[in-house]
Task: inverse folding
DNA sequence: GCCAACGTTGGC
DNA sequence: GCCAACGTTGGC
């Protein structure tokens, strides 16, 4: 594991009907490649910034409700997304080639499934999370950075701990 | 299904 | 490079 000070945190979006936390748990070694990101800003994070050992918040979008279901750990840093090369794949992109891959992916391994599913509507009411990228109006990125403080808060909430001792 | 907020495309 | 049209995301 990298030193704590070097560890970064990310939120990765998936639609549960497409790839759920259960799907991740069912993978060999509970590890899967995170494919299908087709947005340049999100791609840049995967290619340039996500590193082995980083923490991942596993987020369900377009869900009822949407929210964070648990955590994962990055076990392989960015490498070309081969699903972009396959015409049979949903996210095939003819502009991407083996020589000049456009899209990147990482591998993640399941961490902890939260005792409490953290619905988006609940996260919005947490003062410590008010600057979280996910909660910004119009936020659409499928890969976004999370601060260490936000990570700590979200994981504590997921574990069922009280955030504000009021 | 609605629609706001983006991102991408392509004519000029 | 501008920008209108169009497509996508994703909460609600």
Result:
């Amino acid at each position: 594991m990298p030193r704590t000070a070097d560890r970064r945190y990310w939120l990765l979006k998936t639609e549960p009907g497409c790839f759920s936390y259960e799907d991740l748990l069912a993978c060999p070694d509970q590890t899967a490649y995170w494919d299908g990101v087709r947005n340049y800003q999100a791609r840049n994070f995967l290619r340039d910034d996500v590193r082995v050992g980083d923490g991942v918040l596993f987020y369900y979008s377009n869900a009822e409700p949407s929210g964070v279901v648990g955590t994962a750990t990055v076990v392989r840093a960015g490498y070309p997304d081969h699903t972009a090369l396959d015409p049979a794949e949903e996210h095939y992109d003819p502009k991407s080639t083996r020589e000049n891959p456009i899209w990147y992916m990482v591998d993640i391994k399941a961490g902890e499934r939260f005792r409490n599913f953290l619905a988006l509507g609940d996260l919005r009411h947490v003062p410590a999370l008010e600057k979280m990228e996910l909660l910004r109006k119009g936020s659409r990125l499928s890969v976004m950075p999370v601060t260490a403080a936000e990570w700590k808060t979200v994981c504590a909430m997921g574990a069922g701990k009280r955030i504000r001792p009021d």
Observations:
- Chain A has a mean pLDDT of 93.
